Amino acid sequence: MSDLVIIGAGLAAASAVETLREEGYDGSITLVGTEPEPPYERPQLSKDLLKGKDFQPLHDDQWYAERSATLRLGVTAVAVDRDLRTVTLDDGSWLPYDQLLFATGAGPRVPDLPGVERATLLRTRADAEGLLDQFVPGRTLVTVGGGWIGLEVAAAARDAGLEVTVLERGPKPLAGVLGDTLADYLVGVHESHGVVIRTEVEAAEITQTGVLLTTGEEIPADIVVAAVGAVPNDQLAAAAGLAVDADKGGIVTGDHLETADPRIFAAGDVALATHLHLGPLRVEHWDNAIRQGRLAARALLGQHVHYDWAPYFYTDQFEFSMEYVGHSAPDDEVVVRGSLEDSEFLAYWLRDAAVTAAMNVGIWDVSDKLRALVGQTVDPPAPDAL
Q: Which pLDDT does position 378 carry in this prediction?
């Protein structure tokens, strides 16, 4: 018997609880979460909740009770004493631990702009519900940032009848991930639905009436959403003396999610984990949180497991509905097979004739086959390679 404390009550934490009990762990488990509700899947915030769909919790309280997992919700861990092996909470209480799992996730990056307090940040259920309440047809919304969250918010707002503008600092949204051809395609999808995409522009201030650009132009907006990325919640770990990466961010771990302290592990968005093939890697996606939660649980139990899978994510923006697996680099060659016009195609990223990543758009039930293709040498990749 032992005491396990999980700091963070998100998807990685819930996956760890499930796996620990499945694998026969019979010690105590306590989850500490700042939000008032039990763990839920964050992708539904921008993909579902902003489209008016009902919020779906991952599990109800009974599920945790059946697994003898104690939920400490609405409180925040403020200190970890590795010598005494205790976690102090902001309500003045403390928890002993024999083993500790950091699953603190990531928070929205707050741009350093005057008036940023006027912007909406999207990270929690409360954030999404508050934003949805502002979705009134005819109002104007501007997203500062043209990444995945910015574009998903833009699509949801446009479907709700708002006038939408996306501000992107680079030459094309997501060009570093998708490459020029697919970035152009995605811009075309948004523009065909009436979204205005402004590229190579930079916000200087969020005003009471919109977003002021560095050029002096002001983009009018009733609603401003700041979507400029996320930062890992690694401050508590750093204060406890654990290694965090100053450049990439995240708690540094080995390939089975262990920190330098043999009693402490990290999983999910906060973990800068050593991938067996890709080296240090921090992934902020739903699938990775699930898999790392499971892996951390098995590692906590002493099983010989490793971080070795290809990252996966998905998005839905208008007719652009896709799945992506792998880890490409901006200078990888991109090969497209299928019809961009019909939004049904496969895309492959190649480096030295090896597939680094693959994406299916409008073609389903092929993700596992694409995953198996990642790392393989192909010449050239084509649908019949599946």
A: 84
